[in-house]
Write a structure and sequence with these properties.
Shape: globular
Number of strands: 20
Helix content: 10-25%
Strand content: 25-35%
Radius of gyration: 17 Å
Distance between the termini: 54 Å
Number of helices: 2
Structural class: mainly beta
């Protein structure tokens, strides 16, 4: 069997649907709709992925909610998405080492990355062995926010209610309510 045929079997949507059903049964996933092609990896513990009413997570997303190992590990990782929020396809939501909260009535476009924590950068350890950098963790996105295609939202940031993140922007600082930001790094380019 070719590698591509094997990967096709491993990535079959039915397997993802079975995994989502198992997570719901174990109390790790509640509410909303998750398309069968979305890859969910959720650490054990109740309420790790909480979806509000009418949340739609479309196809081919990767959602990781996990905890690090070891004595200094962060153990409160979770992802919460408010009512009536739409998450487009091909996004990468990584609530590992921190928490991600997305408000109500938000639009998350395609190819968006939201990361709750980064690894440390000490020269004393190889990058692969670095623990989470606990100086900047978590992402909070308010209500009625539009995140454009290809945007990246980095750890330690808050995006205020009604804000717009332009396509391709890299958010490394807080965004005030109703600001429109764009660029790398993201800067204010307007208001709503």
């Amino acid at each position: 069997m070719s590698v591509s045929a094997l990967l096709g079997r491993l990535a079959h949507p039915a397997l993802y649907a079975v995994r989502a059903a198992r997570y719901r049964a174990e109390g790790l996933l509640s509410g909303g709709y998750v398309h069968p092609t979305t890859l969910l990896t959720i650490a054990s513990g109740p309420g790790r992925l909480r979806l509000g009413k009418r949340v739609l997570i479309y196809e081919y997303n990767v959602i990781v909610v996990g905890d690090d190992q070891g004595p200094t590990a962060f153990r409160g990782s979770h992802l919460e998405i408010g009512d009536d929020t739409y998450v487009g396809s091909h996004n990468n939501l990584r609530a590992a080492g921190g928490a991600i909260t997305i408000g109500r009535k938000c639009l998350i476009s395609q190819h968006v990355t939201i990361v709750a924590a980064n690894h440390g950068t000490s020269r004393l350890q190889p990058m692969k062995d670095q623990p989470w950098d606990v100086t900047r963790t978590g992402v909070r996105i308010g209500d009625d926010v539009w995140v454009g295609a290809g945007a990246v939202i980095l750890p330690g940031t808050t995006v205020g209610d009604g804000a717009i993140i332009a396509a391709g922007a890299v958010v490394s600082r807080d965004v005030l309510p109703y600001q429109i930001v764009g660029g790398v790094p993201a800067k204010v380019i307007g208001e709503r």
